[in-house]
Amino acid sequence: MLWDIDIAKRLHHGATAFQLDVRFVSDSPRLVLFGPSGAGKTQTLKILAGIVRPDRGRIAIAGRTLFDGDNGVDLSPQDRRLAYVFQDYALFPHLTVRQNIAFAHHRGWRNPGRHHRDETVERWIGTLHLGAIADHHPHQISGGQRQRTALARALVINPTALLLDEPFAALDRPLRERLREELAELQLSLKIPMMLITHDEDDRRALGDEVICIQSGHLIADPSAALTAS
Amino acid sequence: MDSAWIALGLTLKVAGWATALNLLLGVGIGFAMARWRFPGRDAVDAVLTLPMVMPPTVLGYYLLVLIGTHGPIGAWLLNRFGIRMIFTWQAAVIAAAVVSFPLVFKSARAAFENVDPQLEEAARILGLREVAIFFRVSLPLAWRGILAGLLLSFARALGEFGATLMVAGSIPGKTQTLSIAVYEAVQAGQDDTANFLVLVTSLACVCVLLTAGRLVPGHVSPRR
Q1: What global pTM score does this model have?
Q2: Cα–Cα distance list, B57 to B45, B53, B70 (Å)
Q3: Which of B121, B127, B136 sits opposite A111 (nearest CB)?
Q4: Coil, strand, or helix at residue A48?
Q5: In this structure, is residue B224 part of a structural domain?
Q6: Which residues of B touch A105 (CB under 8 A)?
Q7: Hey, which bits of A76-209 come out as E strands?
Q8: Structural domain count, chain B
Q9: What is the pLDDT of residues B11-49, one digit of tens each?
Q10: How far apart are the C-alpha atoms of B84 and A186, rounded to whole Å?
Q11: Complex ipTM, two decimals?
């Protein structure tokens, strides 16, 4: 099984409590977690990545057990070797595109220098067509370029899986379609299992070999029910 | 007028050390308070901000009670290391540091709170350890705000009078900083000395402000 997920967490939004209960197994290399805003998609992804701790459960991705409440396994986010693309990309504003991508390759207390060249990093810059803006800062480049930078930065660590949080939400329609295709091709060529969370029908259709629907913290069977949520 | 230059040198030394001390403590505690939620955090914040609003002589009195030879810390220092803190330039450093600490602490805390925690999360997922994240993500993005606080703190330490007088006294060459020297000169009717000291002090303050203007141009934002 590529994905073996069983997590539960009680979340608190101010005064209201919200129970997240996500349990599924899948062998699909292209998984889409689909549901309306507030359904718990981002929380689920954060739990998979290790930045939020579930109350109980088990997480195994691509054959590696990342979390097992019963057996005391809880890999830190640093050790999970997952590629994570945030909804607003979370690029480091004080570093150039190249430095952002090279970020994970430097383990010390100092950031990669602007003029430092690394073969792997250059290769990613080429693959994702970022050569022209490699020395720019995030605020100087377009939304599509930021998304590709975030992808390159995440993939440089040679991850075991790719997690994306609404990767096209901030982009306009024509750009979205183009980038969807690019992402699909990229995933195919890299052969990395990918999980994408979205509330967009088109994303689901284009990138979901298997679709898991979530609503109010729980998985539901009927996809169209997710759209008529309050 | 030699005494004026001596007083200036001493004041710069005291303010310099006090600011260096506050850099370490203020940034460290500011970061901890910004990132770590614990019950009573607001109360701790209030206590740490207290030196900013307390009358300096009152603060000086508290310090005297603590580090004086009969105080808990003072007695320990005397018995263990044979060190007598009172009336030394080191005591002046402590007085200046305590009085100006809130300026660095508050700026640092605000600066770190302005750093998007998602950036630190992203760095974690990319495999970086906490200390590396602090030096490579949090600090670079917060340093402008911290620097603004540091400069204010340095200026405050330069002018410290009340607390310093209490714990360090007014020993020319050892603990008589510029503001104390001015006071003494005026008390003794030495107008020429007082005028010169005031001039030197004013020039020093202008220099600090000019440096501040060059190092922190405009507002705290990610990039120009």
Answers
A1: 0.86
A2: 22, 12, 19
A3: B136
A4: helix
A5: no
A6: none
A7: 82-85, 161-165, 194-198
A8: 1
A9: 889 999 999 999 999 999 999 999 999 999 999 999 999
A10: 70
A11: 0.91
